[in-house]
Hints:
- The structure is a single chain.
- By secondary structure, the protein is mostly helical.
- The protein has one domain (about 35-170): Tetracycline Repressor, domain 2 (Orthogonal Bundle), CATH 1.10.357.10.
- It is about 75% helix and about 0% strand.
- It is built from 9 helices and no strands.
- The chain is elongated.
- The model has no long low-confidence stretch (mean pLDDT about 85).
Amino acid sequence: MIELIETDGYRRQTLREIGQALAIEPAHILYYFGSREELLQQTIEFWDAQSFQDLLDPHHDSGLDLFVAAVRRNCEAPGMGHLFLSFAADAIDPTHSAHAFFKRRVKQIHADLSQAVRQEQEQGRISLNIDSALTARQLMALADGLQLQSLISLKESAIDDLARSVDRLRSRTV
């Protein structure tokens, strides 16, 4: 199914095409998920939850490094990245089925990144003059923009650009 999304975007697949990709009847999708949109939303939520499990690795010594690794994971799966960013844009509408999920997710990532910046400030890795909440919003915006660019054309530099921004943030120690 993700390969379909990668080649055609997420709006073009019919329930029949998704069923064929999953080797199940479209009626089974409706039975278990209620709609095509619900299947896609559950796919996003599973991917997101799995990211935390996959990224729990002793190599990530900070929350900022974990954030870069999570963005790398998304960029390495362009079909999921496309689905995720498209759904996030649609979920701006408060009536969208994924609105609450994305609202919680944004709030949680902002809190986690703010905490990661404060932690590195306490360790002397980031200047105390840096506003952790503002920096968290900026890193989130940068990551979203870079992921979008990587889906359009600039595949080679998204992760490097994000990692360099985190390194630059760390080099502002005072």
